[in-house]
Amino acid sequence: MSDLHIAGQRFQLQAFTLGDTDEGTLRTLAAALFALFLEREAEFGFHASVVVDHPESSDSSGTGFLADAAAYASRKAALMDGGPQGIRIVILTTYSDVVRSGLEAAGYRFIAIDMPAGPEHTAAFILEPRVADRDLRTLYIEAVNEDDEKIRPSFVLRLLDSNGRLCGGACGSIHERAGKRYAYLATMALASGMPTGAGTVLMEQLVQFLRSQRVAMVHLGTQTAADFYEKCGFTVDHRLIRGLRIRSKNGQEVMGDLVMLSRAL
Fold it and tell me: pLDDT tens digits, residue range 180-230?
């Protein structure tokens, strides 16, 4: 545990790893952070031009996403205003090993997303519309294997205020490939009302922690915070959807892109 001072306020930072904490406790700590993350994400809506779909991975019928991803996406697009011809379809999935051949046969462009510490078989598939339209709409399909062992947390950082209240943190996983250690940042969040600069301080602490774990590179994906991560030294590897999310801030609309980023440590 270490003390931090942010804008004159005192906080404590706790770090937990599989080396000192059991897996069940790590999951519980990560779940509390994710709940905080969802609270902040609720400040963003989805842009009116985007329809979001999360297929049921447990659907064993012949019409499910895993059975025929191209047909599944086509049916979803057909339900959107304007029909499927003027719609861009973007699929982000960790089931690329299952759906790749069928989607490529249907004309989708395959984009491999290599995150050594992140979910296996992560990839994006994009199908551009047949008809150019100034008011282009997007169907975004996200299909993730939540049971993938690689996305189970192996570290958690918790930021507590002077009353012991959880007010931020980060969690994710660390894995090794070819003698090099990588991290996947699953969640990073701050409570509403935290002082200016708290996010930067938390990121600095996260980087120090990952370096102490001999991590050489960290990867993540975000729908709402690309600008923040870029300011913190991350590079955009893939920008999949521009203007996916939107919120009002100080009377102005703020857009969030769906991006995948990385940073060498």
Answer: 999 999 999 999 999 999 999 999 999 999 999 999 999 999 999 999 999
Distance CA 176, CA 157 (A): 20
Among 44-53, 132-141, 213-222, the range of highest mean pLDDT: 213-222
Residue tagged 């203007």 (tokens): 243
* Number of independent structural domains in the chain: 2
Rg, the chain, Cα only: 20
b/e map 108-136, b = 16+ CB within 10 Å: beebebebbbbbebbbbbbbebeeeeeee
d(CA 157, CA 45) in angstroms, rounded, equals 27
Residue 138 inside a domain? The answer is yes
End-to-end CA gap in the chain: 22
Say how many residues make up the chain: 265
Pick from 187, 189, 121: which is nearest to 150 by CA? 121
Both 234 and 161 in one domain: the answer is yes
**Interacting residues of 69 by C-beta distance below 8 A, sequence separation 6+:** 91, 93, 95, 98, 99, 102, 103, 125, 143
Report pLDDT digits (tens) over 87-130.
999 999 999 999 999 999 999 999 999 999 999 999 999 999 87
Range of the domain at 139: 49-143
Domain-located, residue 12: yes
Q: Are residues 55 and 38 in the same domain?
A: no
Mark whether 253 and 166 lie in a shared domain.
yes
